[in-house]
Amino acid sequence: MPENGAQKCPFPSPHRDQRLHQGWVPARHPLRNKQKSLRDSCYKHSRLSFLSNNIVSQTTGEAKPRVRILGISGSSRKGSYNTALLEAAKELAPESVLIETYDISNLPLYNQDLEAKMPPQVTEFKSKVKQADAILFAAPEHNYTITAVMKNAIEWGNRPPNDNSWDSKPAAIMSASSGPRGGARAQLHLRQIMVDLDMHPINRPQLLVANEDGQVRREHETHRLADTRDATEIAHPTSRMDQESTAGPP
Questions:
Q1: To which H or E segment does residue 172 belong?
Q2: Dist. CA 169–CA 130, nearest whole Å
Q3: CA–CA gap between residue 43 and residue 29 (Å, rounded)
Q4: Residue 217 and residue 198 in contact, taking contact as beta carbons nearer than 8 Å
Q5: What angle do CA 56, 58, 63 make, to 5 degrees?
Q6: Domain 67-232: which CATH class?
Q7: Beta bridge partners of 71
Q8: Do 141 and 247 form a contact (C-beta atoms < 8 A)?
Q9: How far apart are the C-alpha atoms of 245 and 176, rounded to whole Å?
């Protein structure tokens, strides 16, 4: 135990019981008045470790984005509903957030033989993932799971051994579909995959856009995306719907 009596957080990853985080002090300890600020500081460091330390540029004095989010759509289809969700998120992002999207359809099909000399597209993609503070997945559902193009990108990001670009990244998932469940099974499967990637997915709110007709209804979705931004502080990826999701055009 540190000399000041504060107990060190034994869990470097986010944990629901905030008492276990660094800065927690016993209720009767003299430092109890500082408990909340210390706890909140630890929680934000572990859960939102992607926050930038430099908010203002030292050269220009202009505000810099505090959070850099990489948006990845699992659909390469023109007019994709999921890609449209990413574009809507970019438009709704506050000034403190920068959302950049990356087209994963240009990545070659994963082949372990290529790891000795990584294709330039893969090197660029892995660099983008590493530079991002958080990941925002737009995950359409194909055959009860994520799409082949998204799985391919996940494989490249996780290879070669000891070079997991996804490691410890906070992540949020959203999906849209013309079906009645909005991609729920794809989201569930992606969460399972993130366990092996050692990522930290946001649990709630959730965004499952069902029965999509080809247009992202901004008035309705704006409110819900904003609610999610406030809850997660990684730029409005998701808001809960009463409907679950299914496959349809991604």
A1: strand 170-176
A2: 9
A3: 20
A4: no
A5: 25
A6: alpha beta
A7: 101, 136
A8: yes
A9: 8
Pair of tokens at residue 222: 């704006």
- Round to whole Å and give the CA distance between 101 and 87: 8
Three-state secondary-structure class, residue 70: strand
Q: What is the pLDDT of residues 108-147, one digit of tens each?
A: 999 999 999 999 999 999 999 999 999 999 999 999 999 9
CA distance 105 to 192: 23
> Are residues 71 and 99 in contact, defined by beta-carbon separation less than 8 angstroms?
yes
R_g of the chain computed on alpha carbons: 20
d(CA 125, CA 191): 21
The dihedrals phi and psi of 26, each to the nearest 5 degrees, come to -55, 155
How is residue 63 written in tokens?
């505000």
Four-CA torsion 125, 126, 130, 134, nearest 10 degrees: 50
Quickly count: other Cβ atoms within 10 Å of residue 59's Cβ: 5
Specify the 3-state DSSP secondary structure of 73: strand
pLDDT per residue over 53-72, tens digit each? 444 444 566 656 579 999 99
Residues of the chain with CATH 3.40.50.360: 67-232
Residue 179 pLDDT class (50, 70, 90 cuts):
confident
Q: Quote the tokens at residue 166.
A: 């996804």
